[in-house]
Amino acid sequence: MRLLLNGGGSTEQLTPTMNKLNEIIDHNKPILYVPLAMDEVEHPYDSCYEWFSKQITNVVVPSLDMAKSFEDLASKNLNEYSAIFIGGGNTYKLLKGLKESGAFDKIQEYIQNNGIVVGCSAGAVVCGKDIDIIASMDPNDVKLTDTKGFDVLSGISVFPHYINLKSKLTDEENQARIDKFTNSIIEFTLKNGDVYAIPEEDTIYINGTDVEIIGTRNYFYFKEGVKQEFELGNSYSRKI
């Protein structure tokens, strides 16, 4: 099992993640891009593909493929790909489509067979225990009731975008945002288990039973209503 769960960064912020991906990938197979968490009307998938193509320039692969629907994703032979990149958007929309199409089971099998998955924002959240951790950020407009994710961190859920250092908000607005998320995460942990809350610069790298945080910003671990802060600083990575 090899997964890179990113907090939802920009091109610059994703660079360390893509460098790690380039280290571990099979360079003879294409990458499959999954933009399906996005609303296709607001964010046409062709434009999402253009964005992804710019993120992946430092990863050496023969080609890039894109799943254009959940049914398309479910029909693919995932073993033909060196990695699956699941992008951001609405996490409830993403998980509902994965489960209803059967793609969830196929990706789960791919993960268990040592396939590489990169999850960015919503793509990271679905890899945790329960996506209801994101209720303070994403609306559940699709009325999803089965919110259990791939659970690759053995009972820990993932909250992305916890600190957005490139935000255009004022200091007061940003603090209010963080307070809202913090209170929501604390309440979640009292009923649903522990949470990693990571900023956009950071990535959780899971390699079998080893878990490592890659990045430069502090990350946070919530357990039974208690928030703990861990410093990465300039160390780039930390085993956890």
What is the number of beta strands?
Answer: 12
Number of helices: 7
**First and last CA, distance:** 16 Å
* SSE ordering: EHEHEHEHHEHEHEEEEEE
Strand coverage percent? 15-25%
Mean pLDDT rating: 93
> Roughly how many Å is the radius of gyration?
17 Å
Question: Could you explain the architecture of this structure?
Answer:
By secondary structure, the chain is an alpha/beta fold. It is 32% helix and 21% strand. The strands form 2 sheets. Strands 3-2-4-5-1-8-9-12 form an 8-stranded mixed β-sheet. Strands 6-7-10-11 form a 4-stranded mixed β-sheet, with helices on one face. Helix 2 links the parallel strand 2 (31-34) and strand 3 (64-66). The longest helix has 22 residues, at 171-192. The two termini are 16 Å apart. The model has no long low-confidence stretch (mean pLDDT 93).
Give a short synopsis of this structure.
By secondary structure, the chain is an alpha/beta fold. Helix content is 32%, strand content 21%.
Name some characteristics of this structure.
single chain, 7 helices, alpha/beta, eight-stranded mixed beta sheet, 240 residues, four-stranded mixed beta sheet
Layout of helices and strands:
Layout: E1 2-6, H1 11-24, E2 31-34, H2 45-55, E3 64-66, H3 70-75, E4 83-86, H4 91-101, H5 103-112, E5 116-120, H6 122-125, E6 157-159, H7 171-192, E7 195-197, E8 203-207, E9 210-214, E10 219-223, E11 226-230, E12 237-239
Parallel strand pairs: 1-5, 2-3, 2-4, 4-5, 6-7
Antiparallel strand pairs: 1-8, 7-10, 8-9, 9-12, 10-11
